[in-house]
Specification:
Number of strands: 4
Strand order of the largest sheet: 1-4
Strand content: 5-15%
Number of domains: 1
Number of helices: 6
Radius of gyration: 20 Å
Shape: elongated
Largest sheet: 2 strands, parallel
Helix content: 25-40%
Distance between the termini: 56 Å
Order of helices and strands: EHHHHEEEHH
Structural class: alpha+beta
Length: about 200
């Protein structure tokens, strides 16, 4: 388990109030179903801020506690969250939930659905304001060997992890989405003669 800064990263790092693994691997249909819901995705995002109770999550989401409790049960049954501590309040015990892993890794056989879901989520939740400097989007394509594409994908993953470890503050939640992917675009033959 790790909540410590990754060696080589600079600056302050957001520290969670509970321990979690760096990665959790989504390998089952139950996990795919749990991850394919916007409310559950939002809950997972909130739990990267800090652990939270059903009541706290319900208030943040503007949803009834029963609805949030249902989603928490789905995530817990899928092994994506767990109770990280309990607190006695009068005659009741509050459960604080936390993620099992900071980053959810999709196995190749289950990756298509979540990848599309992530891109759709980014499109749905992005706010476009002409007076704001963001979002910044770009698309680039390059013909390179697979090994180089994998190396670059790891750099993107490292950058995404740096993003979620930034200290919390401000009034706006910012999103980060990136992909390195093979295409079926045509390629030019290697030319031995330059023009």
């Amino acid at each position: 388990m790790s909540t410590k800064p990754t060696p080589g990263r600079s600056g302050d790092v957001h520290q969670l109030d509970y321990e979690l693994d760096d990665y959790v691997y989504a390998t089952t249909p139950e996990q795919m179903k749990a991850l394919g819901d916007r409310t559950r995705d939002t809950i997972l995002g909130l739990l990267l801020e800090r652990s939270a109770t059903t009541s706290q999550l319900a208030a943040a989401l503007g949803k009834p506690k029963g609805t949030v409790g249902y989603h928490l049960n789905v995530l817990a049954d899928a092994g994506l969250i767990r109770v990280v501590r309990r607190r006695k309040v009068r005659a009741m015990t509050e459960k604080y939930y936390g993620r099992v892993g900071r980053t959810i890794v999709f196995t190749p056989e289950h990756a298509d659905g979540p990848r599309m879901f992530m891109l759709e989520e980014a499109l749905q939740e992005a706010v476009y304001d002409p007076d704001h400097p963001l979002p910044l989007t770009t698309i680039r394509r390059v013909r390179i060997p697979t090994e180089r594409a994998v190396e670059f994908a790891q750099r993107v993953t490292d950058l995404a992890e740096d993003f979620v470890e930034l200290p919390r503050g401000g009034d706006t939640v910012y999103g980060f989405v990136a992909a390195v992917y093979p295409t079926d675009l045509p390629v030019l033959d290697d030319a031995s003669e330059a023009p």
